[in-house]
Amino acid sequence: MPFSIEGFLETEGTIAEQQKARYGDLFELAYSFSRVGMQLTERLQAARRNRELVGATLLARSVAHFQAIVMLVERGLPVEAMVLTRSLMETSFVICALAKNTVTTEELAQHDLASRGKLASALTRVPSAALDEHHAGLKSFVKDLDGAKAILVENMASRAGLLDLYNSFYRYLSHIASHPSITASDLYFIEGNGSDRVSFRCVPEDTPIALILTFLTMLITFGSHEELAGTTPELSAAISELGEQYQLLERRYSVWDRSGGIRPSATARS
């Protein structure tokens, strides 16, 4: 059936075929990243210390995010995929800070409690009869968590030594993918000399930036996991090879200029 009927849920796989035909080198590298990620996940049960255990769960989350991103891009949804790339990047800040020993598992536990306390506190202000019977329990829960400290994403990035990444690509992804900005929805707008219109359509031009930013983030994650838990010589060599292939494709597609600025794309017209 045509896109006008099925949209991105089309069952014939036409979009995926077109994507792989156009960006075959990017998808080939994506599957190489996935294979290395799967090999690393096979070693997660060897984690023993708290830092290793937390890092192992973050790696598992990262590999799942990565595979979901590739699936979305294959379907012609690179902008939607970058919503997950932003989440993947946020996870990389944490695993990198763990590897550098600039955040402790105790601090992460406190952050988790503080976030849960904030949610519980917000629920007590929801005017819903269904929640009334839970208000006392929620308030008690919030009181018990008094003093738990959250860690801002920017602070975590700073601890990881990745503040430049936060201030550039993370913020970029927030604006063009995660948040409902004019720029984020611009890909559906078509200018037409007085007949401007909106069209629900597949716009795959952001495929390179979506995958290359994701590759960059996974290299940080893999490197941090190596530092945190160690790997085999074979896996270390495979990760190094991924880095070399990433650099080749980054230069080939030039999705940002050499000074680090993002080039305008289908979703970021000036």
Overall description:
By secondary structure, this protein is an all-alpha fold. It has one domain. The chain is 66% helix and 1% strand. The chain is built from twelve helices and two strands. The chain has a two-stranded antiparallel sheet. It is globular. The relative contact order is 0.15. Mean pLDDT is 89; it is low at 263-270.
Summarize the structure.
The protein is mainly α and 270 residues long. The chain has one domain.
Bulk shape:
globular
- Tell me how many strands there are: 2
Structural class given helices, strands, pairing? mainly alpha
Radius of gyration: 21 Å
- In whole angstroms, the N-to-C terminal distance is 35 Å
Strand content: under 5%
Helix content: 55-70%
Main sheet? 2 strands, antiparallel
Question: What spatial order of strands do you see in the largest sheet?
Answer: 1-2
Q: Could you list the spans in which at least 5 consecutive residues all have pLDDT below 50?
A: 263-270
Mean pLDDT: 89
In sequence order, what are the helices and strands, one letter per element?
A: HHHHHHHHHHEEHH
Number of helices: 12
Domain unit count: 1
Pfam families: DUF5677
InterPro entries: DUF5677
